[in-house]
């Protein structure tokens, strides 16, 4: 901010009529620079808005009256900076820059009144209005009374004051929006709606208006001031350098000032990172300009070596006005004398004694301006300088934040933890239970809660939890479900178990008051698999628990409009945290996701950084793969558009988004077509995000929100997992690409350029097998020194044979063959990598295609890892990732495409081994007992020992039982598929597989044939001379094919965009994390510091005891 003010005031000083660095006849140049610095933000905003209008629908505002304020601001800004300020001294100009916020003080008082916040905080706003008006009155009186005959000075002063008032309309949008939101006037609300919907077009019109008005004022003032524009084309090089450097520093510092101010606002560090530096910046500018003037004046007096009293006026007459400007030498003394020149008309006789360049009367005026400016920020007026002078019109980024803050202040969010389980091991279940108990400690449920941000309730949906045991009439829990019960009973012995239409429910109250509800699903009573568990909790939590109370109030005669408004608010502040049965997370990770959804109302879902856990080469490969995916791909999606997949193992969804049209209803669709089985059932989390994106909701990624989940640890399980993910990812992306026009129109974050980026990514994924074959061919040609065409033929044979075998052999055999081939490919990749490095050292050059590619990718990955210091060790897994590229992008692609007709889950499919333990027997006895007590109504009462069990009784009401029966009947009834239907579905899936595989591999074959023809016939080959590290030609040449060059350039551009997106996302993540630390309650920090390990230690001790 100080550099910004110094550079701008320097331009103003150089434009002063009495300064000599820029001669009088060359003043139009400095005035032109002032005009450029004024309109530069408008030009950038215009370009940005026009770019958005090219691929977004931009509505024209119905009421053009809003442009009237922009006209006032444009006229005031141009007159103040171009006409008035160049005729005033440096102290006055510094004061003016800090006194332009005249009307915001008044608007703030009005906004507080309309928001019905009339209290003590209103007093500073009123005092601020009075103080700044008093300061301007004193300013006018002192200047005019100084010389009543000086009409010209009075004119400049009057224009300066008028310009300040007009410029202060620059903040009209901030307070107008707040006033409209809290107003009951239909006209204001319609105007606000019009302003919001036509935001982009208003930016275009207001930017053009500012540019045109500034140009008109500048063009008219120069001839009126008896200056000539022709001099602009004949400026000497010395003056040109001075002006160019000054305006360059001014524009760069202005942009940095805006970006740092934005960061301070987002970090909730406004007072110490924005307000105080902004206030001190003015004092620093004053010191920067005034201290050298005093020092030079004192040096001049000492140089005279006389006892006579030398005053400031004589110093100006002799040393300042009578100087000879040197065209060579140090420029700084001339700048100091030019600054002194602007102050020569003042009476400075008392300057040395009081340490100021103003007289006592000016001291009073400046003090009022500064104190008024400072008083703004001592109270809740943090959005006053959202649109600062000369920094552009970016109000909406801030206004949305402030409006959402005012609207949601004090509203309590409700978070439902929804974990789905199936065949998790004891250790995996222990991970998620520790995390839930950790969150219970972090946010205890109390009668008088200390924290008003959110409450939570944990739900676990256990799929296929029952099994039939010979000799027992009742179905009993299997070993996986029994592990969960065992863990809970070891921590909380008292359980509350009830029978339900879908199986059984277990209710547990944790040590700090929050509840865990475990839903044990019986696949004979309710549909199994993960998607149907999600449908189950979507309709139960959002359909039943959220809607029931409002429905009851409406039946009792409640006001419909008020109930609808309350319902919409609760839907907006209800969040579902989707979890897997083995997810390990910290409370801070949940808080960061909640904070994201609270801050931005159009965010429908947010996911965190997923870390795979486990051991072995398969896990090491996945660690680096997940890291690269999150570091580059997800950040690029977040920055340039939307995240396409929010993983179901750790994602927070907004209830309002899930309840939107065609989301929950569409998500509950039963698969009937072959494509449904692939898109709906194989990648349910991606499909849910596709539905949200189509409805206009934004999906985001938060890199600071960490979660850990177990990854497949053997080759077979990894291949089966990716066999599900690959085709479902492709199906969902194709679905989005097919709806590009609809998605880009409805979703403000999904632009057509972003969809083109996804199209390129899809083409790259489709051609990945052919690309890997070409890479292997190049490797063989490099190692064996054979013709590239022959190498290509050799490279095609192994994957072609594997492709044919996959259509004939069983999946286990296919995976075994892929594992053996992966070893050979890994050895080949390792040898080739070492050979390329050796060739670079031997030939002393890296300017070959393979060398450039390896070096560039290594630099990008290393720099990216350095941007994630906590994950830096993952770089060591990069070598394993590189040598496994053929396996991951060739063999795995072939396996997943050929077996896309297999719709089994592929992982955790081991059958549970039944072992009826004491805990399970106790559970089934409890269920039998409640069966008797329920009777036909399903209602019962139960009491427990007060010391061991909470007293609050949970009743399974008849109406909830009826809800489950209706829900199961409509959506979740177990599918009864006969043999004929199964055969028909199997045949349809095979036909779909054959069609897609033909197209998929035919495109790859075309790509390979084209590459082969180019290599055999040397058509369109580009030859480039090889140079060494000194850029001296070595005599060697390398050839580049146009197709390979085109693909490499496209890939390089994609990676570069991802890298830039990652860099921007890191900055945003840092800001968000700092803001989270700043807003975390103090008592929470103390409690977290004191007890952060207590729950973990207790559960870990019990875990160790159980294992032993």
Automatic annotation (TrEMBL):
Source domain of life is Eukaryota
Biological process terms from the Gene Ontology for this record are: chitin biosynthetic process
Keywords, A to Z, come to: Cell membrane, Coiled coil, Glycoprotein, Glycosyltransferase, Membrane, Transferase, Transmembrane, Transmembrane helix
Whether Endoplasmic reticulum counts among this entry's keywords is: no
Signal peptide span per the entry? none
- Write down the InterPro entries for this protein, in alphabetical order: Chitin_synth (IPR004835), Nucleotide-diphossugar_trans (IPR029044)
Which segments cross the bilayer?
29-47, 67-84, 90-110, 122-145, 157-181, 202-222, 242-262, 274-297, 754-775, 782-803, 815-839, 846-868, 874-898, 1000-1022, 1042-1064
> Which residues are in coiled coils?
none
**Single GO MF annotation:** chitin synthase activity
Q: What is its EC number?
A: 2.4.1.16
Q: Per UniProt, what is the membrane topology?
A: Multi-pass membrane protein
Subcellular location per UniProt equals: Cell membrane
Which coarse location class describes where this protein primarily resides? membrane
Q: Can you cite an annotated GO cellular component?
A: plasma membrane
Stored SUPFAM superfamilies: Nucleotide-diphospho-sugar transferases (SSF53448)
Q: Which CDD domains match?
A: Chitin_synth_C (cd04190)
Whether Nucleotide-binding counts among this entry's keywords is: no
Reactions listed under catalytic activity: [(1->4)-N-acetyl-beta-D-glucosaminyl](n) + UDP-N-acetyl-alpha-D-glucosamine = [(1->4)-N-acetyl-beta-D-glucosaminyl](n+1) + UDP + H(+)
Q: Which family does it belong to?
A: Belongs to the chitin synthase family. Class IV subfamily.
Please identify the protein, giving its name as recorded.
chitin synthase
